[in-house]
Amino acid sequence: MIDAALIVSKLIGVGIGAGMVLIAYIVRLHAGSWLAPGSVYCLLWAGFTLIPLLMAPTMPVNLLALIYVLAACVTFALGAALLPWRTAVNANLAKPRARASFSTPVIWTSFAVATLASIASIGGALAAQGFSWDDLFLNLLATSAKFASMRYADELTPTAFTQASLLSSYVATALGGLLFAGQPGARERWLIALASFVPAVLIMVTQSAKGVLFLSIAYFWGAINVCRIFNGETRLGSSEGLKQLTKATILLVPLVAFSFLARGMSETDEASDIGETLRYYFSSYMFAHLYAFSDWFGAYLGDPASLEYAPNGARFGLYTFYGLFQLLGDPPALPQGVYDEYFTVEGVFASNIYTIYRGLLMDFGLAGSLVFLLLASWLAHVVFLLLLGSKRPRFAVAAYIVMTGVFVHSFLSSLLMYNSTYATLAALWLILAFNGALSYRTTSRPCPGDVPVVGLGSVRRSADA
After folding, report:
1. Which residues of 406-430 are buried (b: 16+ CB within 10 A; e: fewer)?
2. Per-residue pLDDT tens for 365-374?
């Protein structure tokens, strides 16, 4: 029998998700671009909301949790207000195009060095844990599963190789994105894309660590969007980009499935059991976050919940900026997955992913979390303003790329928890500053082929940009 209350709540939830799209459109109208932080953030959270609602139609959801997420999106969009967007958009047309700015010897060399350094560091990290090349080539699945079990049992030997492999992998994909968007041919683009993701894919298949690939994709996308901005484009994508994304997804899904199996999630040889296991874990990673946060949010407000959650005392930024706490002192230890409560629906999914919002609420409270988002939004839009209006936006380029990673990662947790985030920002900034010092060329005139500015939302350059 169909539960009428469930249907109504789902329809309201879908309406809330559609409201996030509307907010993104309003920011686009105000700032003149879909690439504005408020637009990107709201569109992402529309997806993070609508996909779980539609993919698990029989799962109940706490509407108050969805209303809070909508309020968070509205708050984050407010940072775009009262900033001089028209001046910045017009100034952006005077900058060199992406190819002239980023297809330089410095970026190419840094990309090659980062890629090779990451591959070498991955080998060093595996060797430090006692694995050999024979283990990788002769039984990769068992090696990856053993590495994963050692990680979850906290049995890995701390080594600099691990951190170096992560940092260089993130830098490689970000620089690869800057180079990818500036190449005129499809063949050159695919070669750069493949080289960019070799380190992340190696980490995933040898260590069963999917998060590195996921975050690398976010950085790559952020870098492509930087190039769109330099070329005067205002769209998030194109039909050709959608085709390329579809092809890339077809290539990556089997690798992700291998990573699930390598983690030891299935020890059966029966195809039906393997298929069921993959469905279960894809569900856990794709849409359990919304229902887990929904359940926790109810407990936060004092309503009955399926789990007994940790106390909600103020953490003053611990769950949002844990990496900074580590640099400044000796903070309380957190579980590997941030939270050790697993929200479980038997036979459907099990997840300890509670989104960035649980951490914000535990750190700053209900009102304080919205104040934090407002301040963060203002900073994000100032970065975007500098990216548009500055002649040499070196820091803004690096910050926008990392900021995209923060937005995409928000359905998991705060990316600012990890020291690798700050290290990636610093490394990209240094590379871009060095690149600018050697090869940055500016001009006060638009590039040949530029389309004159007719309206704020229609600023574009020709397709050969």
Report:
1. bbbbbbbbbbbbbbbbebbbebbbe
2. 999 999 999 9
